[in-house]
Design brief:
Length: 319
Amino acid sequence: MKKLIGSLLIVLLLFSILGCSKAGNNKKVSLKLGLLSIEDNLPFFVAEKEGLFAKHGIEVQLIPFNSARDRDIALEAGEIQGELADLLAAALFKKGGTPVKVVSLGLGATPQEGRFAILSSPGSGITTPQQLKGIPIAISQNTIIHYLAEEMLKEVGIAPSELNFQSIPDMKIRLDALLAGKDVKAALLPDPLATLAEKSGAVVVVDDAKLKNNLSQTVILFREDTLKKYPESVKRILQAYEEAAGKLNESPEKYKELIIEKARIPKPLENSYTIPKYSPLVLPTKAMVERVMNWMQNKGLIDKAYSYEEIVAPGYLQR
């Protein structure tokens, strides 16, 4: 009898432990995403507005940041769990001891998404890539902007050794200096600032949306500890993002005010600027990752080129 009672107690204890474990796994998790106000992040903002995170059974807090540096520091500190950044950021996180993995592209599945352009100042007379040789091009040093400036010009036959750069990290200051044309004769800018510069008299010299190879991508990345603990939550975040992107593609006018606010559309473009179409989420290709890693290694930004498997985590997209 004592043995029977003992056995029953053990069985009940096991059921209790399993029940608690199951309850713990089903506990609703709130994940924080760090976001800049750029058009790449618009699906996240639409998902919040339309209640799509709740629809997909996930609680998400969108934490705004004014600079990529502040956002990245927050991810390193564990104050946020994910962000939309670029492949350079993913590698630098890893080098700095914060393991992250890319789970999807943001914008950049096609060359038309996430446009960047190298422009010359009004009245400079610079209209062709060949004329940029030796001319200081305003960029943000050792960032995705620097990478794109070199790679875009390489695509049109200009070697990095033929280029000069001047560092102006603040994009608004870079734009103003370009349009003034006194100290800056050329600069690389993303949309919508590139479009604003063109409408203000600057000349587009190289447009990455018209190049043969697709060079500019943003990526959605998460801390590895988050991916291990909450894989289903990450999958649901991506599902909500994709549903929101579909709504943006179908009815951008419905979200005009949100787009102007969250993508920081300059006032002169509020009634004319067209946001890009958002492709279905996909993983970056090996060629995309290898090109960025090799550039970073050549610049001394990382000691070794990380492999595709070290940067990208498959299995979080619906397909």
